[in-house]
Amino acid sequence: LATSEYVLFLRDDMRITPGSLGQLVDVLNAQPGASAVTPSVVDPAGKVLHCGGWPLVDSESVSFDLTPSGDAGVTGWVPTHGTLFRRSAPENTPFADGMDVTCQNADWVLRVALAEPGSLHACPAASVIAPVVDSAEHGSSLVERAEAVRALTAHANFYARHGRLLTGPLSELV
After folding, report:
1. Residues 44 and 131 sit within 8 Å (Cβ to Cβ)
2. pLDDT tens for residues 135-156?
3. Helices (H) and strands (E) in the chain, counts
4. β partners of residue 139
5. Of the chain's two ends, which shows fewer C-beta atoms within 10 Å, N or C?
6. Is the CB of residue 103 less than 8 Å from the CB of residue 155?
7. How far apart are CA 36 and CA 151, in angstroms?
8. CB of 116 closer than 8 Å to CB of 35
9. What is the pTM of this model?
């Protein structure tokens, strides 16, 4: 495991742009109470896909309003890819077992937001380049629906913990 103060979660198909890591470190250095900071996630053409976001929680569901760009500072959501974490953050609030990456990220962000309000930050000046990924929507064919069943356990675990459904393509399928 990491022994440095900060840990960068970066998928193997993403690239961090020059100077961005230093900008993310600067944010965490300047904000001792910050748990994590996300850069802008951009596609290969440079279009900003998101830079943080905000959870939308109602009595039945949880969704996330991703911020396409914005001001540096506090945000309500950071992805688990392309984000610089203070090493103590996942130690203090461990990632949940029994969930896929989508549910695990939503679960962690909600728990951190409750336990440490204002500890998630966005740094739009920093960026990581993510490949264009096909939509995560599940189709209607029997094979596509069968593949979606794999995600049901993760969503059930999220529901058991939060008493709400995580919205998105899977919730629309069922």
Report:
1. yes
2. 555 566 787 777 777 788 889 9
3. 6, 10
4. none
5. N
6. yes
7. 26
8. yes
9. 0.86
